């Protein structure tokens, strides 16, 4: 909550003005029952009091109008202030999430981060808005109603005040129960978001394998679990309203009984009892508003703590001081080991060096550590042991911007935005038309010119109106357009035919021969021309050298060549 309070602090001036207007409207509203009492007791029952009735009636109408204008103005201000607070909070939360390392995102999970960015910020929005609207109005009506009614009729007010300790205990109990319960509900919503993500991403596979029914049952299980959590939280909080309603209505009945006795005894007039009952109604509604505030506060507080957890998570990939070395190599992996779960190494003792402009090919079965090696070079994760250097500098000493400006990356499973091909290639960078056309030619993406509008052809979500090979070539265009010094290609030609793959490799050597290139691939043909080839298995380098050297000295590589190339191993 302290983190969220920082976002409220800059708006305290506007909030104070909004509260002042709200208080003014509420105070005016409190005069209405007292004015009604004057009409009934002082004018309506007195001969010739019609003028006073009309005068007080006009004043009541004016007061009601002023109260309405004050409340409307304050509510509009509350909406504007809350919208701006939420916008800033959500923007900073998104910015902070994107600054977290891949390991931190793995730990928090994508589903939970999406939930915190959407439903949790929505709950905080509602809490701030309701606190501005009802947080002032409800206590003012409650306290003001009690004070005015105490002045008007102390005996009946004391009867009503006797019920307040019970009501206070109910509200305190509900708030203590509510925050843990709604935190539990939000955790259940994280599970639901994750299940929806999995189903949306794997919809084609699910249908192809006829697992739709099974997935529907699994979703129903997760959905039912969330519903059960929500039901438990709602039932717990729902007990508050009936309980407070019973206490207040019992008090009201007792007030009416005592009031009727006092009117019958002539102690007070009927106007006062009617006015007092109006105040009782105001106090009753104010207390119900207070209970709603605490329910909303419980939800908002639980969500604020979840948001605060993310905002207080310090990115663990900040630049560190590390001495630079004078070395000719462009990229060096110096006995690097890394584990995702910190129990068993996923890659072990990676040791190699690349000179500027050289090409590294990485080949091996799925799960051998090829993508992990690239992730370490991009510093999505920090190595547990060893050191990774670029031009003699430890990658940990480079700022994210400094590192990323050197890289051009194409993943096997990357994404395209629902925008034009031009914007997908530019990707928010300052890249000219000539650089984009050059990248299109190098990436063998001439099909773009055949599309309606060329570079301005509109893509669907995830580029669904392109084939798999066309999507990969647009992604390669994106990486090449920035003219990177280091080019990372993670099995990015898997959807290309062999001829296009070969022409792409030749074009890369001609046009981007000065860039140091790292290619992770399943095909031997994609890496056989590399200056250095790593053969990986179970996170270890089991072969290292040129194509010819590996043919002679690495049985695994030789077997791959025979399987994929047949007799063309040289």
Structural summary, described in words:
- The chain is of the alpha/beta class.
- The protein folds into 2 domains: 310 residues, ABC transporter transmembrane region fold; 235 residues, 3-Layer(aba) Sandwich (Rossmann fold).
- The protein is built from 21 helices and 10 strands.
- Strands 6-7-8-3-9-10 form a 6-stranded mixed β-sheet, sandwiched between helices. Strands 2-1-4-5 form a 4-stranded antiparallel β-sheet, covered by helices on one side.
- Helix 5 packs antiparallel against helix 11.
- The two termini are 66 Å apart.
- The relative contact order is 0.08.
- The model has no long low-confidence stretch (mean pLDDT 83).
In a nutshell, what does this entry contain?
The protein is an alpha/beta fold and 570 residues long. The protein has helices at 2-8, 12-44, 50-99, 102-108, 110-152, 154-161, 164-201, 203-208, 212-238, 240-264, 270-311, 370-377, 400-404, 421-426, 433-442, 447-450, 468-481, 498-511, 524-527, 547-553, 555-565; strands at residues 331-338, 347-354, 359-363, 385-390, 393-394, 407-410, 486-490, 516-521, 532-537, 540-545. α15 (433-442) crosses α17 (468-481).
Features:
single chain, 2 domains, Rossmann fold, ABC transporter transmembrane region fold, 21 helices, alpha/beta, 570 residues
